[in-house]
């Protein structure tokens, strides 16, 4: 029998109790599958919490949007899990450089650079060692994984990528110059470097999902293929179909 571990947001306490009573809870170490109750933010948090254990994660929506989650139901959970379809994802690795040193973090959605003050940021962008944008004047810029392209990237008018696309989305946030640059699609193996120009006058923070490093002077971003995480979805409602459908929504 598949061993389960249930975790959730504080607002899902009653649901957690019901599920644990009905199906048991093997704990985070011994479970075969982690069942996460919450919204998309909690799914990202759970992915980070279980990166070292590499447990498959099945999310059920007890939050607001729930794009990354399955429909909540306490019935026939073992049958749903047995028939579930897999989505294998890889995070981005961020290496943020500041005057004090270096900080590493990972992001399953995106790494974003954001201005900290009223003044626009000035950022130089290099891809695989070749300068591509000498000076981007903007509110910020981000690199997104395919699974993250329907989140902040989409709000910044970036493209939606299929879940199995071997691509990353590089998207500016409110670009002033170059005014017509709308971003780029990069091979998943691309290595992106952001250099902050006039960093003392125009400070910038770097954010990997929900982890922030302030006052960066440079940021390196690349996909980390050494880490694979599996998300599980109800048959016929997989993440690939959801992302495809999002491209045709109004």
Query: What number of structural domains do the residues give?
Result: 2
State the shape: elongated
* Structural class designation: alpha+beta
Rg? 19 Å
Number of discrete helical segments? 6
The CATH architecture term of the largest domain is: Sandwich
Strand order of the largest sheet: 6-5-16-13-8-9
Strand segment tally: 17
Q: Major sheet: size, sense and barrel closure? A: 6 strands, antiparallel
**SSE order, one letter for each helix or strand:** EHHEHEHEEEEEEEHEEEEEEEH
Helical fraction equals: 10-25%
Q: How is this structure best described in words?
A:
Helices cover 17% and strands 40% of the residues. The protein has 250 residues and is α+β, with helices and mostly antiparallel strands. The strands form three sheets. Strands 6-5-16-13-8-9 form a six-stranded antiparallel beta sheet, with no helix packed on it. The mean pLDDT is 94. The chain contains six helices and 17 strands. It has two domains: 4-89 and 228-246, Probable inorganic polyphosphate/atp-NAD kinase, domain 1 (Rossmann fold); 92-223, Sandwich (Tumour Suppressor Smad4).
Give a short summary of the structure.
The protein is of the alpha+beta class and 250 residues long.
SSE blueprint and pairings:
Blueprint (H helix, E strand, L loop, with lengths): L3 E5 L4 H11 L3 H4 L2 E6 L1 H10 L7 E5 L15 H6 L2 E5 L2 E7 L2 E7 L2 E6 L5 E7 L2 E9 L1 E5 L7 H4 L11 E7 L10 E4 L3 E7 L6 E5 L2 E3 L4 E6 L5 E5 L5 H8 L4
Parallel strand pairs: 1-2, 2-3, 3-17
Antiparallel strand pairs: 4-17, 5-6, 5-16, 7-10, 7-14, 8-9, 8-13, 10-11, 11-12, 13-16, 14-15
């Amino acid at each position: 029998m598949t061993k389960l571990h249930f975790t959730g947001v504080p607002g899902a306490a009653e649901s957690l109790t019901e599920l644990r009573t009905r199906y048991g809870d093997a704990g985070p170490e011994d479970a075969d599958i982690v069942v996460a109750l919450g919204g998309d933010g909690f799914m990202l948090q759970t992915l980070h919490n279980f990166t070292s254990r590499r447990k498959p994660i099945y999310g059920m929506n007890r939050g607001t949007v729930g794009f990354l989650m399955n429909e909540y139901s306490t019935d026939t959970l073992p049958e749903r899990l047995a028939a579930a379809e897999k989505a294998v994802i890889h995070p981005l690795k961020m290496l943020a450089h500041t005057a004090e040193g270096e900080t590493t973090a990972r992001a399953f959605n995106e790494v974003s650079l954001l201005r900290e003050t009223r003044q626009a940021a000035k950022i130089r962008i290099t891809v695989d060692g070749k300068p591509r944008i000498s000076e981007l004047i903007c509110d910020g810029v981000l690199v997104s994984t395919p699974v993250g392209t329907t989140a902040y990237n989409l709000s910044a008018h970036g493209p939606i990528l299929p879940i199995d696309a071997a691509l990353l989305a590089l998207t500016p946030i409110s670009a002033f110059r170059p005014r017509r640059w709308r971003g780029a699609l990069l091979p998943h193996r691309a290595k992106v470097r952001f250099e902050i120009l006039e960093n003392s006058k125009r400070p910038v923070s770097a954010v990997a999902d929900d982890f922030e490093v302030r006052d960066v002077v440079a940021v390196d971003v690349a996909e980390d293929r050494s880490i694979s995480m599996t998300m599980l979805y109800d048959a016929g409602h997989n993440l690939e179909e959801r992302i495809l459908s999002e491209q045709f929504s109004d």
